[in-house]
């Protein structure tokens, strides 16, 4: 059968000759859904257009940064003006300070911060600070949580590693991996056991306060509070990876919404407005350990570049409670609609949501941790995905990723998605 997207298919074949797997980030290859990706030429509002001229209603939204949609006119004007002044200086600008002030004002636990170029850099650097502050080596993370591709965190990881069935990565030294302890998300007893076993050895606990890299899994009642208490009792630092949840679920991130405050916070995505960015920050006593104030070294040629700072400022200034209420309302309607469509089609689906994030898991059991997430039927999700894509809806090409809504989505878009899902759920039931 000829490809429904022949130009994109040709582009993918060409890319495979020169790019690893034809992509620059694994999930983009559509391997998890056994397909060939459309090659995108344009994004506007809530829609994408591919090389074949096909238009899609987008629920990937560049994996979260585009809370205001693709290419808002105000942002493109601001970036055009910024680029005309220069793309990078390797020297300080007032833009960096201004964006940092905005972030710190919105997240009270962040007194000082450092901009970097990715979420991976942010988590890597925060862990280095935690180790320096505590003079300990071990880090506790959670099975299925992805914190970037730094060596010590690619142990029982989520996101693309989970999607491709690679929970750990070759190339990670055994000595590095041995300092990474793995607990079970939403299982406080597993954390208590690790603290007892490795008494006075754990530098920090790093966690997604709302897990988004094994699909969306909200924290159980008392879980984050328990982590905070255990860290206090054991003189360990608590690190929140809010690369996904930061400014997604509320102005102050998940920590503000859930009223649990970490020692260090890692950010990315929305604070760059769609450009490469990351940041780590926290209490001044810990951040003062970073060079040039302290001896913890970290640097970056393009860190805090004026284009990313401009886009981040534009995005943060336009966050509002009205926007978050609207996103939550649309997410709730989509959650209800997908759940009903699945029931009507006779297929087992659990839809988890948090603010503008959601994931339909193809399973009959509630999904509250890694083990229940990986129990989802990926074959049925793949059938659902392709049926949605064929109707012009672009969900994530993986069962284990979040759907993202934006301010550019409309109630009509949501209703259209629900209607398309009715056919797609029937396709899933046949898979």
Please describe what this structure looks like.
Helices cover 39% and strands 14% of the residues. It is an alpha/beta fold and 431 residues long. Helix 2 runs antiparallel to helix 11. The protein starts with 5 loop residues before the first helix and ends with a helix.
SSE map:
Blueprint: H1 6-18, E1 40-44, E2 47-50, E3 55-58, H2 73-85, H3 94-106, E4 112-116, H4 119-134, E5 138-142, H5 160-163, H6 174-177, E6 180-183, H7 188-197, E7 202-207, H8 223-234, E8 237-241, H9 253-258, E9 264-268, E10 278-282, H10 284-287, H11 306-317, H12 321-345, E11 350-354, E12 357-361, H13 370-373, H14 378-389, E13 393-394, E14 403-404, H15 411-430
Parallel strand pairs: 3-13, 5-6, 5-7, 7-8, 8-9
Antiparallel strand pairs: 1-2, 2-3, 4-10, 9-10, 11-12, 12-14
Helix pairs in contact: 2-11, 3-11, 7-8, 12-15, 14-15
């Amino acid at each position: 059968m000829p490809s429904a997207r022949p130009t994109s298919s040709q582009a993918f074949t060409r890319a495979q000759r020169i790019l690893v797997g034809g992509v620059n980030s694994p999930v983009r290859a559509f391997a998890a859904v056994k397909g060939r990706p459309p090659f995108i030429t344009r994004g506007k509002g809530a829609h994408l257009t591919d090389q074949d001229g096909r238009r899609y209603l987008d629920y990937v939204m560049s994996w979260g940064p585009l809370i205001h949609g693709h290419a808002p006119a105000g942002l493109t004007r601001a970036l055009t003006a910024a680029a005309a002044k220069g793309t990078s200086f390797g020297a300080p600008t007032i833009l960096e300070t201004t964006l940092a002030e905005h972030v710190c004002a919105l997240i009270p636990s962040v007194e000082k911060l450092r901009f970097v170029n990715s979420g991976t850099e942010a988590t890597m650097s925060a862990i280095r600070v935690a180790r320096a502050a505590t003079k300990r080596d071990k880090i506790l993370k959670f099975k299925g949580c992805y914190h970037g591709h730094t060596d010590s965190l690619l142990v029982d990881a989520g996101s693309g590693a989970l999607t491709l069935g690679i929970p750990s990565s070759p190339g990670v030294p055994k000595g590095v991996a041995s300092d990474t302890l793995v607990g079970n998300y939403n299982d406080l007893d597993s954390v208590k056991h690790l603290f007892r076993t490795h008494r006075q050895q754990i530098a920090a606990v790093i966690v997604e306060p709302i897990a988004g890299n094994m699909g969306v899994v909200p924290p159980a009642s008392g879980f984050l509070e328990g982590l905070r208490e255990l860290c206090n009792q054991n003189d360990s630092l608590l690190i929140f990876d809010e690369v996904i949840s930061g400014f997604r679920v509320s102005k102050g991130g998940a920590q503000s919404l859930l009223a649990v405050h970490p020692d260090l916070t890692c950010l990315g995505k929305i604070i760059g407005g769609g450009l490469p960015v990351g940041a780590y920050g926290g209490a001044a006593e810990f951040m003062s350990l970073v060079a040039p104030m302290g001896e913890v070294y970290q640097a970056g040629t393009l860190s805090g570049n004026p284009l990313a700072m401009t886009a981040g400022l534009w995005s943060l200034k336009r966050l509002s409670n009205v926007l978050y209420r609207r996103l939550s309302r649309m997410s709730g309607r989509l959650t209800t609609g997908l759940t009903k469509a699945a029931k009507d089609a006779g297929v087992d689906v659990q839809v988890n949501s948090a603010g503008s994030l959601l994931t339909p898991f193809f399973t009959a059991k509630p999904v509250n941790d890694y083990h229940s997430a990986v129990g989802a039927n990926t074959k049925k999700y793949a059938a659902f995905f392709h049926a949605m894509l064929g109707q012009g809806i672009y969900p994530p090409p993986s069962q284990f990723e979040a759907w993202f809504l934006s301010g550019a989505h409309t109630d009509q878009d949501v209703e259209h998605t629900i209607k398309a899902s009715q056919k797609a759920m029937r396709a899933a039931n046949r898979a």
